[in-house]
Amino acid sequence: MCNIVIKETNRKANEVYSKWNISNPEKPQKIWKPLTEEEFDGYLGILITAGVRHSSSEDVKELWRMDAYPLYRATMAINRFWAITRFLRFDNANTRPQRLESDKAAAITELWLLLNNNLRAHYVPSECLTVDEQLFPYRGRTRFTQYMPAKPAKYGIKIWWVCDSLNSYPLTGQIYTGKSPKEQSDGVKKKRTPANFFADFRETFSNAHNREPYEESKDVSEF
Fold first, then answer.
1. Are residues 82 and 110 in the same domain?
2. Burial class of residue 201, CB neighbours in 10 A (0-12, 13-18, 19+)
3. 148 to each of 11, 60, 177, how far by Cα in Å?
4. How far is CA 47 from CA 44, 86, 170, in A?
5. Confidence at residue 53, expressed as pLDDT on a 0 to 100 scale
6. Are residues 114 and 59 in the same domain?
7. Domain endpoint, select from 87, 107, 132
8. Domain extent for 103
């Protein structure tokens, strides 16, 4: 999974720098230092540490102060952190428009499928499975952000999970994106429900159950 992020991040950075160099031949040419696996691990470590230390609301500059937690400065320079964040990508943006025609979550679908495969590959579930929904709090711009007023966060990304009822281990998840652009243009009225999502597991695990009721949500295409 990390290899995909590293490859696409380097691709995006090289494309941006190449365009800038062509447009500014009289200025010193910019050269992107390739992101490596070791450096990406350090980048993830910074994000995780910032979360553990409840620093998500702090200005990034504050984390690199001389009197701040030393891990950030020891891992990489702040300018490098900003550069990686700027170019961070999870897919090939050049082919994304075609994939968006049938998949609103095209920018992260490849990683999401790999995550699901890893979840199933490393755990043997019991016969008791359940389907439940999660609203991951998020107010960024996506084509599938949901508005659910009954939830504490209200706005976010809705995910249906198949989990082991005994310990809540997630076996697979499906991001709810509503109708695809093609379905909308064709006027397709196909309702996506947890029951449909659970179809792949029903034959293998007969002792599974759904939790009712499932809350209706208002689809917010973009805001």
1. no
2. middle
3. 37, 31, 14
4. 5, 14, 23
5. 93
6. no
7. 87
8. 95-209
Closest among 106, 95, 89, 93 to 182, alpha carbons compared: 106
Q: Which residue has the tokens 């010193």?
A: 28
| Integer Cα distance of 179 and 173 in angstroms | 17
Tell me the pLDDT tens digit for each residue of 51-83: 999 987 889 999 999 999 999 999 999 999 999
- Residues 110, 91 contacting (CB under 8 angstroms): yes
Per-residue pLDDT tens digits for 189-203:
555 566 666 665 555
At 49, list the tokens.
Answer: 């540490």
0.85 exceeded by pTM? no
CB distance 181 to 102 below 8 Å: yes
Q: Which residue has the tokens 């994939």?
A: 99
Phi first, then psi, for residue 23 (nearest 5°) are -80, -20
Give the position of tokens 């691709």.
Answer: 11
One domain for residues 54 and 154: no
Q: What is the DSSP letter of 105?
A: T
